[in-house]
User: Fold this.
Amino acid sequence: MRRALLLFATVLLAPIAATTGSAATLAGKVHGIVTDSAGVALPNATVIVAELGRATTTDAEGKFTIRGVPVGDYHLSVMLLGYAPGHLVVRVPAEDSEVLATIRLTATPLRLTAMIVAASPTGTESDRLTQAALELSGRSLSRALGSSVAASLAGEPGVSQRYSGPVATMPVIRGLTGDRILILQDGERAGDLASSAADHGISVDPLAAQRLEVVRGPATLLYGNSALGGVVNVVSNDIPTAVPGHFEGYVATQGETVTPGGAFSAGGTMAVGDRSAVSVRAGLRELGSLRTGGGTTLSGTDSRALNATVGYGLIGERANAGLALRVYDFEYGIPSAPGDPQAGVRLNGRRVGLSGKGGVQLRSRRISYLRVEGTVQDFAQDEIEPGGEVGTSFSLKTQTLNAQAATGFGRVKGALGVQGLFKQYAASGEEALTPGANSVGLGIFLFQEIALSRLRDHDSGTQLQIGARWDRYAISSDAGNAKFGPAQTSAFNNFSGSLGASVRLSDAFSLSGSLASAFRAPTVEELHSNGVHAANGSYDVGNPSLRAERSLGAELIARLRSGRVSAQVAAYSNAISNYVTTDFLSDTIVDGTPMPLARFVQANASLRGVEGSIETRVGEAWVASLSGDLVRGALADGGGPLPFLPPARIGGGLRWELARRFVATDIRHGFKQDRVTGGVDAATAAYTLVNVSAGQQWLVGNVLHRMTLRVDNLADARYFDAASRIKRFAANPGRNVSLIYQLQF
Assistant:
């Protein structure tokens, strides 16, 4: 741990040393103004330079400045509520250049996806990505915001949630969840146990998010292990990467009736001199027990969570660096079936993390910029038994260290990176499911984009994306507990690759396709479990002989973006060899009670599906929408369906939206799911949900006020989602009235 901290500090402080050194040779400066189509300045617009990991907002006069920009071409992406995302490629021709950029945004009621940082290291426009990706921000995020990250995304095509109560949720992307989905906060792994079991939740509050990003499908190339199914990135920009020209801040509150209670979050960023900035953020969420459809209450599911962050950024002419300290403290109850002896179990824990980012301009035009990022995180969690004693204590310490260089060779632009992942896990107590274990991961990747043809300057008609990655990942279990046997080490080596192409057939229509391989190493639970797993209702036995999962995914995407229509349809296939699943052998007796005996086994599996959405203007302020998704997954050789797959879904809506207000309604239908494994994975009936919402925003001085009122599941339908881990005894949330009030300045 000390070595990791020393390495973390040494590498991340290097850019600070470069910043405070000689500035005889200056980097470029990009500054400008954001306006509407009539030339009126737009304040509070977010400006992002993805290649550098830099972001800022416009001041009251619509102006912005980003200093320390190396020589080269950069994608400027601009986002503002009520406007179509803006995109401009700028060129910094020399080290002391000043580049003036004017970006005009067009007002639109359509929901248009902005640049997605988690999908590409080069700032590629969203409609040029060779993988399906989505982004929620502004009004779209307010219309979807739930009590968890997974709940906020569950209505998006291709995304649902692994539901085990209002807190213990995890996104399901194209039928995959748990350790196959990687959760990021500001681009770095969230070091918690959410992916390890169904009763663990994500330690990030969605109310503090500026944006939620999702990459659907294999993302191992950029992120390594655990990204076989996709990536979710919660963007809060806790480390300042530009000196703001004004005090930037927000205040947000959320109240809801389905889990009676509310949440509060506030934060701000201010300049400290000419070259540095400080940000602070704090939040609280306190909720009562869940009210399910039909008027019943899932007792013991109340929760509370506190979070706070302090960040500092130093921005020089040739380099920038910053640190952020995050604290997340939580407590919540676990849902339980009537008569369950484990009823009343609660989880109590906290996550403390230190994140650092730095960047420095290099003197080579071929490798122009180096970014270094790292985290040191300490997560601890206790399972409190109904009698008040601690049943199991968990500890997870995580360190990451990543270096990425921006490369450019004419029309070939990309990134070269090295990533390190180090985890120390421990579980203690009579009910511990696994031994402690240490994990070490090392990855090297290359990602390049090649403009094969152009429609006009800086606009590639045909673009090729290629990538390659090598990983080594090892898990070493601890000795000393006879229950788990002697210490063992499992090591996995893997080579991944990707090939994708995007063809823009016109200004409005594009086609993209990709072929990508990915991998996932087995978890400590899958390798070494030996005990009762209350979240699964089984006695789990690990398998130390498990091999790494390897997938080969293919995807085809059609996108249409015009002034009146925004549409995307994707079809995909994902073949996974050595897929890890559970084989329920028989019942065993635990404390006089029969319980399924589950052993982890492997078999080849495949998932195929289609997903899509379309929005079209049917008047100046009216928008009609249609969306849906379908995924089918099965084990090879007649092994049956994969468990807990979400049902096919379809939905439609109508929205009246102007720049300052909106009223919307949508209907979502989930079909029955009878392709199940049986037992805990029971069949579910079809359901229909009706949701309505309305919102208003207004400007007082330089402060933007935004209020959103939502009613989800208006008819209080009682339904059970097929992907839910508690569907055998608990319905999903009932009618929910939610009020969100936000200030931005």
Remarks:
- Helices lie at 2-20, 138-144, 149-153, 220-223, 524-528.
- Confidence is low (pLDDT under 50) at residues 16-26.
- Residues 115 and 125 are 5 Å apart (CA to CA).
- The chain has five helices and 40 strands.
